[in-house]
Amino acid sequence: MTETSRTALTGIRVLDLSRVLAGPWATQILGDLGAEVIKVEKPGKGDDTRAWGPPFLPSDSGAHGDAAYFLCANRNKRSVTIDFAKPEGAELVRRLAPHCQILVENFKTGGLKKYGLDYESIAKINPAIVYCSITGFGQTGPYSKRPGYDYMIQATGGLMSLTGEPDGEPMKSAVAVADLFTGMYAVTGVLAALRHAERTGQGQHIDVSLLDCQVAMLANLGASYLLSGEKPRRLGNQHASIAPYQVLATADGHIVLTIGNDGQFRDFCAAAGLALADDPRFASNEARVTHREALTQALAPATRTRTTSEWIEALEKAEVPCGPINTLEQVYANPQVLARGAVETARRADGREVRLAANPLRMSGTPPATHLPPPLLGQDTEATLSELLGATPAELSGWRERGIT
Questions:
Q1: Rounded Cα gap, residues 108 and 297, in angstroms
Q2: Residue 2 pLDDT more than 50?
Q3: CATH number of 245-330
Q4: CATH code for 13-217+338-401?
Q5: Known catalytic residue: 179?
Q6: Residue 326 CB: number of other CB atoms within 10 A?
């Protein structure tokens, strides 16, 4: 197997039965941290996101290769094709389970039981396994059998009611934040359960749902409602509890002001040449939030007098938090992004190079690393089954001919 000796999870193996985003995001992070991830995919098709494009990588035949969507969440994994809807395939997965410390799946609640791949079945053959189930609504409750996708969870979980202009329609986030947060929570739970299993030899079932995570990540806005009982209103690009914390037009574009305290507001006023800091309506953050419309009316004409770059230069000198609204082209050319190594290049088994976002963790002793590019479908099937299960060439050929692998 691939050497990952400087990474934190060296020696840990993950059986990954997940697809699309929340589960693959979680297992990619585990792979970045050094775990060996065996991604089980359906023969001939694979993860749905391989086809979620455009854009696609080109293939040697000129047909579509894998989609960018798949590439973003599947580095550091070995692709093993097994059709576990067939009894022989399910048995192969069960034979792999004792070789793994972690199993991650995101099928509908109860969906793996008919294959003998549910937690109770797997725990009988590997009592120490950390088994993480990711679903839309959780393993219990009246919605537990419903499928769940990020978009509907942003809606059901309240995020869309808080996002968008006050007089516009509710908006989703452009990035699948419910999926991604759920993947992050799943990793946290898996690592905690792994620590427990290493101490006690006892595994456990982790039940993590998109809706639970979406409700949890309402954060300060959820807490505000729970405290006051008042329904939050959409504020567009403004902040419910801080002002000015918003987009303002400049002479040639826009700037984002993120002023978090009264001292910063005074420094902003000094840099902008505005006599607002002593106005009772604006002297404190509470007052500015109360009079946010008047504050915006006072700021808008002033910010239009300089270009975005002029404002950035002036406010950075004054140590006032601010920033431009960059396009992705500007993001990936940004000197800070480049200096931090936020993008890396990996070469796939077919020789094609792909540029990927690097893991953002910076660890002094056991840094995450990309040791495997996103895999081609089934590229590791024979090697993995031979190494872990001792499969013979005849067995491998037979499984392939019967459509098991």
A1: 50
A2: no
A3: 3.30.1540.10
A4: 3.40.50.10540
A5: yes
A6: 12
List all residues 6 or more positions away from 288 whose beta carbon is below 8 Å from its beta carbon: 243, 244, 265, 281, 282, 295
Catalytic residue among 83, 179, 212, 380: 179
Q: What is the pLDDT of residue 5?
A: 58
Tell me if domain 13-217+338-401 and domain 245-330 are identical in fold: no
Q: To which H or E segment does residue 186 belong? A: helix 177-200
* Residue 1, CA distances (Å) to 31, 120, 135, 265 in order: 13, 29, 31, 56
Task: Give the residue extent of every domain in the chain.
Answer: 13-217+338-401, 245-330
pLDDT tens-digit map of 349-376 = 999 999 999 999 999 999 999 999 999 9
Beta bridge partners of 356: 344
**C-alpha span between 399 and 403 (Å, rounded):** 6
Q: Model-level pTM?
A: 0.93
| Chain segment 176-191, per-residue pLDDT in tens | 999 999 999 999 999 9
Q: What is the CA radius of gyration of the chain?
A: 25
